[in-house]
Amino acid sequence: MTGQIKDFIRTIPGFPHDGILFRDVTPLFGSAEGLELAVRGLVAATNETHFDKVAGIEARGFIIGGALAQELGTGFVPVRKKGKLPAATISEDYELEYGVETLEMHGDSVVHGERILLVDDLLATGGTAAAAARLVDRLGGTVVQVGVIIELPDLGGRAVLNSMGLSVATLCTFPGH
Predict the structure, then answer these.
(1) Which stretch of DSSP H or E encloses residue 92?
(2) Which of 34, 69, 80, 127 could form a disulfide with 84, with the two C-beta atoms 3.0–4.6 Å apart?
(3) What is this structure's pTM?
(4) Is the bond leading into 129 cis (omega within 30 degrees of zero)?
(5) How far is CA 96 from the centre of its chain?
(6) Alpha-carbon distance 42 to 110, whole Å?
(7) Which of 60, 80, 104, 151 is catalytic?
(8) 151 is catalytic
């Protein structure tokens, strides 16, 4: 493989609103080489750690999370937006730039003592990953590491997660927001 992760990430100015540079990972996922780079990169970044399950944050975290779970030989846990899971759930609210959102997990998706790799495509302010980590903690699991494809370091998400005692594995960074 000769490509770099950034070679597969498309930047879309003004989406979802003016002033934002949206980092689109769909070309990465749409390429066998790109997806393999992402999965192998995150496996390498976490190769010293044992996980019982991978938890992926909706929606792009499902794609990379499912592939990582398969590669690591673990189960997969979806972390979903409110109202999307059919069985009994627990929920966690978190702040967005313009309001509040809620994440949910099935109440039986993590067993007490399980070690979890929490994944998503992008780390910005850290609010979504922090809420997901709190859900895992409430179920008795431990988020051992957070893995993301892209980090936007100017938005401070790593500091938020580090303040919770969480380490972060990142495959690439982009300045700005």
Answers:
(1) strand 89-96
(2) 80
(3) 0.95
(4) no
(5) 16
(6) 22
(7) 60
(8) no
Angle at 42 between CA 60 and CA 5, to 5 degrees: 75
pLDDT interval class at 76 (50, 70, 90): very high
> pLDDT for 6-17, tens place per residue?
999 999 999 988
What distance in Å separates the CA atoms of residue 55 and residue 45, rounded to the nearest whole number? 16
- The residue type at 10: R
CA distance 148 to 19: 23
How do 21-24 and 10-13 pair as beta strands? antiparallel
Mean predicted confidence (pLDDT) in 157-161: 97
Closest CA relative to residue 108, chosen from 136, 68, 134: 136
**Is the Cβ–Cβ distance between 71 and 36 less than 8 Å?**
no
Angle between helices 32-45 and 60-72 (to 10 degrees): 70
* 60 is a catalytic site residue: yes
- Per the residue annotation, which of 58, 71, 97, 138 is the catalytic one? 97
Q: How far apart are alpha carbons 8 and 33 in whole angstroms?
A: 9
139-163: average pLDDT: 97
